[in-house]
Specification:
Length: 196
């Protein structure tokens, strides 16, 4: 290509600075930049067994009497099912309509829904109203989902409203647990001010 080694190195450094690539020991790799998340129904079908395995491990962190936050997501839905199957008497808080619907029939679990602006694509509530509800609570554990995360960007989301909810849950919990499968590692969303 008739370019110097230094020119290639500078270009890769610029790509890394822009978040488009990551320098690794053997060279560089492109980051997967996400413009938007998949709808809930599509995400539920991906890596389903991994999500169930993560849920079984997460459920062991929960004790009867705990107040827990279940962030909107397909892994947290599986955590909800695991907790319900173990008949733990807990209080749950969620912004996820699918989780809320599932809990309607589980009398041994007390649950609150945050309310707020509805995100139809992901069947959840987002924004300041949902975040304000969470800010008024003391949570033992917050299970935080993410469609993308990496070392440099931490968690990222394409929507500032989702970020506000996640930040409120992180701030008001004694313990926070990221629940995400490895397929989401190394990806990030481009809305820079929505990082968690």
């Amino acid at each position: 290509m008739n370019v110097s080694h230094m020119a290639i190195r500078r270009n890769i450094q610029m790509l890394e600075k822009d978040g488009k690539a990551t320098i690794i020991s053997s060279g560089a790799k492109l980051n997967e930049v996400l413009k938007q998340e998949l709808p809930w129904q599509e995400k539920a079908q991906l890596h389903h067994q991994n999500k169930r395995n993560i849920a079984r491990v997460a459920e062991k962190l929960v004790e009867s009497g705990h107040v827990i936050y279940l962030d909107a997501g397909t892994i947290t839905y599986e955590i909800t099912r695991s907790i319900a199957d173990q008949l733990k008497k807990v209080t749950t808080v969620t912004n996820d309509f699918t989780i809320g619907d599932y809990l309607m029939e589980r009398q041994h679990i007390t649950f609150f829904h945050t309310g707020g602006q509805v995100d139809r694509r992901n069947q959840s509530c987002i924004g300041n109203s949902a975040a304000d509800f969470i800010r008024g609570l003391n949570l033992d554990i917050a299970f935080i989902s993410s469609s993308s995360w990496d070392i440099e960007h931490s968690l990222s989301t394409p929507d500032e409203g989702k970020s506000l909810v996640k930040q409120a849950a992180l701030a008001n919990s004694c313990r926070s647990v990221l629940v995400s499968d490895s397929s989401k590692y190394g990806m990030f969303h481009t809305l820079s001010d929505a990082g968690v």
